[in-house]
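can u do me a favor
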């Protein structure tokens, strides 16, 4: 089964580039651009550079784009900037970033006066949830820790399941499980 907006990005390896230094790009400024955390730059008229990402952010953003579509930016490239200090004995750690498509939008400050009190409360609650999520500890894996098996306990015993590292692996494991549990092949194909 394929998602309607599934792109080849999730199935193929993302484009990767290494830059010796950070290019002299103009910063992306505006009322909707945060001034702390990640740094954003104008890469081209249709793309931005998001600097300060972690290892799996590009993969997860590409996966989210393939599932959710245009509401999530498309990952053009994952970059690594190996900026070196002026003193060669003090190397600085490499920085990672993403080149993403630009998402048009309207700043919340312009929308706020037109919202009802109920909508304002809903927006505040969602922003609070997002802030709590952003401050939560981020793990460097997207399945079980140390690639261990998932264990499900029930009154029938313990079931062990392999982890899935991508949406495609998850989908294939679900289809295999359908074929194993369905009484006939025709029903399994219908359930897919």
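np, heres the sequence
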């Amino acid at each position: 089964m394929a998602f309607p907006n599934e792109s080849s990005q999730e199935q193929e390896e993302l484009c990767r580039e290494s830059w010796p230094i950070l290019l002299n790009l103009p910063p992306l400024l505006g009322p909707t651009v945060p001034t702390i955390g990640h740094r954003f730059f104008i890469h081209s008229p249709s793309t931005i550079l998001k600097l300060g990402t972690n290892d799996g952010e590009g993969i997860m953003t590409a996966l989210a784009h393939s599932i959710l579509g245009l509401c999530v930016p498309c990952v053009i490239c994952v970059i690594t900037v190996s900026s070196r200090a002026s003193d060669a004995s003090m190397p600085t750690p490499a920085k990672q970033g993403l080149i993403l498509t630009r998402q048009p939008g309207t700043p919340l400050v312009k929308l706020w006066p037109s919202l009802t009190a109920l909508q304002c409360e809903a927006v505040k609650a969602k922003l609070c949830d997002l802030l709590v999520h952003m401050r939560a500890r981020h793990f460097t894996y997207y399945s079980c820790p140390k690639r261990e098996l998932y264990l499900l306990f029930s009154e029938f015993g313990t079931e062990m399941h392999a982890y899935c590292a991508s949406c495609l692996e998850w989908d294939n494991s679900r289809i295999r499980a359908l074929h194993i549990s369905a009484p006939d092949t025709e029903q399994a194909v219908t359930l897919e």
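Confidence is low (pLDDT under 50) at residues 1-11, 139-143. hope that helps!!
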